[in-house]
Amino acid sequence: MSQKSIDVSGLLPAAQPIAAQVAAIYIKHTAPWFIGLLAHGSAVKGGMIPNCSDIDFQLYLHADAYVSPAELPLALGMAIYQELTQINPTPFSKIQCYALTDQLRPDWVGPIPGAYHLVAGEVAVPLATAAELRQAARRDLTNLKTNAISLLSHGPGRLERHVRLHCTRVWPVLYQVAALQQDDPIRVWNLPKPAVIDLLPPESDLGQTIRRFDQTVWHYYPDERLVDDGLQVLETGMVFLLAAKAWWAGYNAD
To answer: For the CA atoms of the chain, what is the radius of gyration?
Structure first.
């Protein structure tokens, strides 16, 4: 694949036209530093939840594109954002992208083989290994926070934001637990969310709580209209996180 060519064939059909537009914008504005662009997450693996799931990208640029680590020039970001606002991400929630260099950030792993699609250019860092995924899962579960969510403020979009952020906490924990329970963590991370949920026995605390969370998420989205439904997502997600923390404590004790 040449650096300037764009290939979105590995994404879900609903994501392909969006990703093609996004890629063209990123490449246009970052051409002097561009290394590669990849997509990952549910837009590649499946299991997308309408109006909840993002289209996730990683944009690799040479280090001299940055004014400080992980910070692009404001003018460059503004120019890109102006064009991104012309793209309708529906049925996805939004376009999300991390700008990276050819050096992995501390405590990050590289792209997971089979769980990403290279949209343009080349992958700039080594791919993740099974050992690295297990190590990352252990680290993240050790540091898992189950602190309460502050619901003392109210305003347009506030609950919706709480729910989206909570989803971004819960789903990775599901994968981390399954990655430690199964023999092949790379295979786990290649699966869509429903298939990973199926790996947890339905009679277990983890299996019961993640299934309940999944049900409440699908009940709340795509409309995000009912406050009670949004609060149910927060509650059931927290119950799963507590179950995961308890499981990890027992796992470590064995």
So the answer is: 19
